[in-house]
Structures are given as structure tokens and as C-alpha cells.
Design a protein that fits this description.
By secondary structure, the chain is an alpha/beta fold. It is about 35% helix and about 20% strand. The longest helix has 17 residues. One of its GO terms (molecular function) is hydrolase activity.
């Protein structure tokens, strides 16, 4: 696949620490309009993640990016990524290998979502998680203020063995609460993955489909050999590194659907 993904930098982003559920992380914020919490993928707030964030700002959202790992603005390299993974593997905040886990960072994220919802227009907020943080968008949806959860290539727990590969990345209690919201208040969730992605597994999405039913909209991009989009079988980051701003590009269309989903859920209808 030719070309490069959209990128940006920290220009115009204001940063301040936010404390919730006993945890403190810097949060970067920018924009006006309905609130969206964008949780970075490994290794952190890379130029590609900031490219997505600035696109959401341009589309009329207030975007808040917590920085729980990595160096904001730093480019991704193999060494940087591996060093970040090594730290996260032993972090109790994320429980990278635990199944059925109630992860402390989920409580932090829900507190951040409530704070953003109280300061932005609209009926609630969106939460986008990606890769290592993909499942946290699902965990955040336990809270009623989260109206637009987006799970992009959720890879936690790391899929070592069949049980972890099929784990929904939240505790049974959290999942039951989200399922109840889909039935009682019409909550809908959006999930994205590449067809050959071994990190965001087919079995994990099958688990989520069984639990959430029609409330779970899935976008699966073809990354099999010879696919029309030109993706490698290793393609993973649907909304960042794989996006090309070319009309008709599959990952660009997926990003457009995410923006549409956020608008549907966060923009009150007039009249």
C-alpha cells in the first residue's frame, strides 16, 4: 500500500493532569462540540494518533486524550513499541493477560468520561479505544454518559491461548451491564478489525457478537492475500496507520463511519 497515514503534532493541545479512581494521568484536550475520549494505542500518542485526534476536532468534537503510557508526540519505532509493551505487561492498572478482569484503568476512564460529559454539549460522550485500549471503550460503556463506544482492533488481554483470544476484555459484571444498556436504552457499539488480525481476534469479536447481538456493529476490513485495499496480512491499526486520505480507501471509509456514528449518538436532534 502506497502513501502514508495522516499525522499531526501537539500544536494547540492543552494538557493538564486528571485524577480519577485513584489514578492520575495527563489529559490533552482540544476542540469544541460534543465530547469524545480518544485512548491511544501502543506505544502512545504518536503522530498518527494525533492525526486521528485532529481529524475529530475538525469534524466538530471536543477531544480528550489521556496519556497513560508512552511519550506524547513521539514517533513510533520498534524499540519504543517493545519497551512500552514490556512496561504494560507488568502493569496492574491494565492486567494485560488476565481474563474476565475488572481493570483499574477502566474506572479511571469512566471518571474521565463523566468529567468531559459535564463540560461539553450533547447528551453524552463517545469513547474510542484502539489496540491495547480497544476493550476499554466497552468497559467505559458501563457508565450511562458513554453513548458512542468505538472498539477499534481490541487486543486485550493479549491473545495467548484460546481462552484469552476469546475474552471480551471486560469483567462479566461490566459486560452484563453493557448488555442491559443495549436492551433498556438502545445503546449501540461499533467495532473494527482487519480480517487477518491475530491481535484483535475473530473469536473475541464472536464473543462480543453473541453477547451484544444487533447492538454491535462490526466493520471488518479485508486483509487477506490479494485484497483490494492493498493491506498486508499484518494490518492492525484501522483508524491510524492504515488510513490513506484517498477517496474510496477502505480504512478511510471506516474512519468516516466512526465520525458518522459519533454524530448519530452525540448530536441531539433538533426540534
Amino acid at each position: 500500500m502506497t502513501g502514508s497515514a495522516p499525522t499531526s503534532d501537539l500544536t494547540g493541545w492543552r494538557s493538564s493532569p486528571f485524577t480519577g479512581a485513584g489514578l492520575t494521568h495527563d489529559v490533552y484536550e482540544k476542540g469544541e462540540g460534543p465530547g469524545v475520549v480518544l485512548v491511544p494505542e501502543i506505544p502512545g500518542m504518536t503522530p498518527e494518533v494525533l492525526g486521528l485526534a485532529d481529524h475529530l476536532v475538525e469534524q466538530g468534537f471536543t477531544v480528550a486524550i489521556p496519556s497513560p503510557f508512552g511519550v506524547p508526540g513521539r514517533k513510533s519505532t520498534a524499540g519504543y513499541t517493545l519497551a512500552t509493551v514490556a512496561k504494560l505487561c507488568v502493569s496492574a492498572e491494565f492486567s494485560a493477560f488476565a481474563t474476565g478482569a475488572n481493570r483499574p484503568f477502566a474506572d479511571y476512564l469512566r471518571a474521565l468520561a463523566r468529567d468531559l460529559a459535564a463540560r461539553t454539549p450533547g447528551p453524552g460522550v463517545g469513547v474510542i479505544g484502539m489496540c491495547f485500549t480497544g476493550g476499554f471503550a466497552l468497559a467505559a460503556a458501563v457508565d450511562d454518559v458513554v453513548l458512542a463506544p468505538v472498539l477499534s482492533q481490541p487486543a486485550l488481554p493479549f491473545p495467548v491461548g484460546g481462552r484469552r483470544a476469546a475474552d471480551p476484555s471486560v469483567s462479566p459484571k461490566e459486560l452484563a451491564t453493557v448488555v442491559a444498556r443495549t436492551r433498556e436504552s438502545g445503546l449501540c457499539l461499533l467495532g473494527l478489525r482487519f480480517s487477518e488480525d491475530k491481535g484483535a481476534t475473530r473469536s473475541r469479536f464472536a464473543t462480543l457478537r453473541r453477547s451484544l447481538g444487533d447492538a454491535f456493529e462490526v466493520i471488518e476490513l479485508d486483509s487477506a492475500k490479494g485484497n483490494a485495499g492493498g493491506f498486508k496480512s499484518s494490518a492492525h491499526s484501522v483508524l491510524t496507520t492504515e488510513v490513506r486520505e484517498t477517496p474510496g480507501h477502505p480504512a478511510l471509509a471506516a474512519r468516516e463511519r466512526v465520525v458518522e456514528f459519533l454524530r448519530e449518538r452525540l448530536t441531539p436532534t433538533s426540534g
